[in-house]
Specification:
The chain has a 3-stranded antiparallel β-sheet, with no helix packed on it. It has helices at residues 17-45, 50-73, 99-131, 136-159, and strands at residues 3-8, 79-84, 89-93. It is elongated. By secondary structure, the protein is mainly alpha-helical. A hairpin with a 4-residue loop joins strand 2 and strand 3. It is 68% helix and 10% strand.
């Protein structure tokens, strides 16, 4: 007979703000790189405008961002799972993604990211209108830098707050 018991583990304490900021920058840079590469690829190889390409790139980068921040930046306490089988007894501690337990965090991070993206997209479109579409890369870089501080604050103080 298989039995599974779920308990909270306190083996890992929450990361300090400086550690979180470092992980936020690493994960954010990874998500930004995905965002940037998708944006440039779409604009370069399709007839899609930079405005729509930026939206598509955001959706793909969000996936990188959520899982990176969930597992690294704002990691929650680990779950301890015990697996008991008549033939073999094994205890394993590992971090799993449970949709049921993680859905509120996912929704809050998506809301935080959507607010960040709305601000990003507004500034991006404004920059495109002021300077022209051929300057979309430097405009994107400046806007991304501005929005980074806002999304870190929303993630730390609301979305991933435990």
């Amino acid at each position: 007979m298989n039995k599974v018991a779920i308990t909270k583990s306190t083996a890992k304490s929450p990361a300090s703000t400086s550690q979180q900021a470092l992980w936020f920058l690493i994960v954010g840079a990874s998500a930004a790189l995905v965002h940037f590469l998708v944006l440039v690829s779409i604009v370069s190889f399709t007839a899609i405008t930079p405005t729509w390409a930026n939206f598509i790139a955001f959706l793909l980068a969000f996936i990188v961002s959520f899982f990176g921040h969930f597992y690294l930046t704002f990691r929650q306490p680990m779950q301890a799972y015990e697996y008991d089988d008549q033939k073999q007894n094994a205890k394993q501690n590992f971090r799993v993604f449970s949709w049921r337990h993680s859905l509120p965090t996912l929704i809050k991070w998506f809301a935080s990211s959507a607010v960040g993206f709305a601000a990003n997209q507004s500034l991006f479109v404004l920059g495109l209108n002021w300077f022209g579409e051929h300057y979309y890369i430097p405009i994107w870089i400046v806007v991304t830098g501005i929005i980074t501080v806002m999304t870190f604050s929303l993630g730390k103080l609301w979305a991933f707050k435990s």
